[in-house]
Amino acid sequence: MFDLGNMMGKIKEAQKKMEEAKAELANIQVKGEAGAGMVIAIVNCQKQVVSIEINESLINPDDREMIQDLTVAAINKAMDQADEEARAHMKSKTEGMIPNIPGLDLDSLMK
């Protein structure tokens, strides 16, 4: 027999675990590099830039456009890595909590 109360309890428990896992994403940091490591961007899995490192050899006013391009590339790589890490983290924290229900898209809850 289907126990609606039990199912609702599991959903609330899963929701709580998902919120906890989302909060933990701020503490997971990933790195994106561009220009063979000349520019490094560190972001967390909540897509917040934590730091930017620029190699001293790039700091020349004539190289301004290249520095900007490499910085954007490093941040974009770090953001892509953050997405992957966030998905893996959320999956590991919520695995087995909610049954696989066709049409239920848990990935959308992470955005």
From TrEMBL:
Keywords: Coiled coil, Cytoplasm, DNA-binding. Residues 4-31 form a coiled coil. Its main location: cytoplasm. GO terms for molecular function: DNA binding. One of its GO terms (cellular component) is cytosol. It is found in: Cytoplasm, Nucleoid. It comes from the Bacteria. Belongs to the YbaB/EbfC family. HAMAP family: DNA_YbaB_EbfC. Homodimer. Binds to DNA and alters its conformation. May be involved in regulation of gene expression, nucleoid organization and DNA protection. NCBIfam families: DNA_YbaB_EbfC (TIGR00103). This is Nucleoid-associated protein DCC35_08620.
